[in-house]
Amino acid sequence: MQVLVTDPIDDAGLERLRAAGHGVETAYDIGDEALLNTITDVNALVVRSGTDVNEAVFEAASDLIIVGRAGIGVDNIDIDAATEHGVIVANAPEGNVRAAAEHTVAMTFAGARSIPQAHARLRTGEWAKSEYLGTEVNGKTLGVVGLGRVGQEVAKRLESLGMDLVAYDPYISEDRAERLGAELVEFDTCLERAEFLTVHTPLTSETAGMISTTELELMDGGYLINCARGGVVDEDALAAAVEDGVLDGAAVDVFADEPVAPDSALLSVDNIVVTPHLGASTEAAQENVATSIADQIDAAFAGAPVMNALNAPSVDESVFPRIRPYIDLAETAGKIAAQLLDGRISSVSVSYEGDIADEDVELATASALKGVFEPLEWQVNAVNAPQIAEERGIDVTESKRLQSDDFQSLVTVEVSNGDDQLAVSGTQFTGGEPRIVKIDGYRVDAVPHGKMLVARNADKPGVIGFIGSVLGEHNINIAGMFNARRDIEGGEALTIYNLDDSVPTDVVERLLADERMIDVRYLTLNGASDTK
Length: 532
Ligand SMILES: NC(=O)C1=CN([C@@H]2O[C@H](COP(=O)(O)OP(=O)(O)OC[C@H]3O[C@@H](n4cnc5c(N)ncnc54)[C@H](O)[C@@H]3O)[C@@H](O)[C@H]2O)C=CC1
Ligand SMILES: O=C(O)C(=O)COP(=O)(O)O
Prior knowledge:
Distance between the termini: 33 Å
CATH class of the largest domain: Alpha Beta
Bound molecules: 1,4-dihydronicotinamide adenine dinucleotide, 2-oxo-3-(phosphonooxy)propanoic acid
Oligomer: single chain
Structural class: alpha/beta
C-alpha cells in the first residue's frame, strides 16, 4: 500500500509504516496542483495542519482509503467530501494535548510578563527593567472557552497556580466542569469575568469568528490567549483591541491563514506575543501523534477498526474479534438479500439476536448497508453507506434482542421495496464457520462465498435432478448444495448451490422456462449479480 505524507511527521511514524511493509513517500510543502497529480494512486494520506485536503483531493484520489491527521484539528480536511468518497478521516486526539496545554500556559506567562519583548530588547543591549511591570496569574480569573481535552489540561495547570476558573462550553455537563473546579457560565459572563481568556474550541462554522470586537469589549482589560485556531478570534479586531488598550495584551499561536502574512496586524502590535503554530511541536507529542496515525493507517489497510475515525463507525479493539464475523456476515446477508429482491429498495432493517446483541454493532450495520448497496453498483463502503442510505431516502433500522431462539448469535438483514420484504440471516458456528441459515423464511445451511445459485421451485420429484443436469450440460460444476422446503410436502422448495463456475443469463432463463421453477437467481458474493 502507498502512503503519502505531505506535512512533516516524526520519523517513528514513517518507520512504523515502512516496517509494516507500506511504501512511504514524503512530499512536504507540496503545492495544491502537485498534490492532485500525486494523490491518484495513493492509499493513505498523512497531514498536519499544513495541507488543505479539499474536495478536489478526494475527487482525484480514487484509491484513497484513509486520511490520517497527525494531530487534533481537522478543519483543513473536508470531512463531508471524504465521507462522500468513502474515505476514512482519522486524527490523533490524545498525543499532543499536553504539549498544547503547556504551550498555552507558556504563552499566558509570555504575554503577562512580556517575556519576548524584554528578551528582544536585552539582546540589543537595552536593560529595560523599569518598562515592564507584569501581571500575576495568581488570584486572577481564567475564562476557558471550550473545556475539552486541551482546555481541561490548561485549566488544571493554571488552577494549580492560583487561578479561579470559569468556563463556557455548551456541550459539556456542569458536573464535568465542577469536577475540574470550574464554574460553567454563559459566553458573555465568561468574557466579562475572565482576566485571562483562553480559547480551546475547534474551528467550526459555529466557532468561526465567535470572538470579535463586541466580545473583546466585554472583556474590558486582561489578556486573550489563542492556541486553538486562528479563525475563532477575529484577527483585526484583536489587534485593534490590544492597540487601543481595550485589552492589556494577547498571545497568539494560530492564524486564520498560515503561514501568517508578514503584514498581518497581529505582528505589529507591541503587546501581542506570537508563535508560529508551535502548540503541538514537542518531541513527545510528535512521536505520539505520528505513531498513532501510522497504527490507524495500518488498521484501515487491514480492514480493522480505526481507533479515532471521525466519519466511520469505530470499534474498540478489544471487542473487534467478537464482532468481526458478524461484520462480514451482515455484509454477506445484505448482498444476498439485495440480489434476491426485485424493485427499488426502500428500507433496510438489521437485527441482532443473542450474544451479538450485547455488542456495539454500528460497524456491522454499516457493513450490512454496504452489502445491500454493492450489488446495485453504488460506490460504497462502510464509511459512506449510512450517508448513501440517507441521501437516497432509504430507511435504516437497527434492532437488538438478547434472546435468540436457535442460535447463539444471529444477524438478519431484511430489505423491502415497499411491497415485499426479504430477510437473510447468518450465524457463526463454533469453529468459526460462517453460515447463512435463513433465506426468505426457509431454514437453510449455506456456506456464503463465491458464486451461488438460489432456486425456488415447486417441491416435486425430479426438480433437483433437472437443475443439476442443466448446469452440467453447461459445464457448471456444483461444489455444494442445500435444499430446504417450506413447511408442507408438495409446496415450495428452495435450493442453494455453491458453484465453481459462473452461470450465464441464458442458463438462468433455460431453468426459469421450466414450469416447476418459481424463481432462479444467480448471485455472486464478490460483486454485482450478473443477471440483474
Ligand atoms: N496550537 C496547536 O498546536 C494545537 C491546537 N489545537 C486546537 O485545539 C482544539 C481543541 O482541541 P481539544 O481540546 O483536543 O478538542 P476537544 O474536542 O477535546 O475539545 C473541544 C471543546 O470545545 C467545545 N466546543 C465546541 N464548540 C464550542 C462552542 N461553540 N463554544 C464553546 N465550546 C465549544 C467542545 O464541546 C469541546 O469540549 C483543536 O480542535 C485544535 O484546533 C489542538 C492541539 C494543538
Ligand atoms: O493538533 C492540532 O490541532 C494542531 O493544531 C497541531 O498542528 P500541527 O500538527 O502542528 O500542524
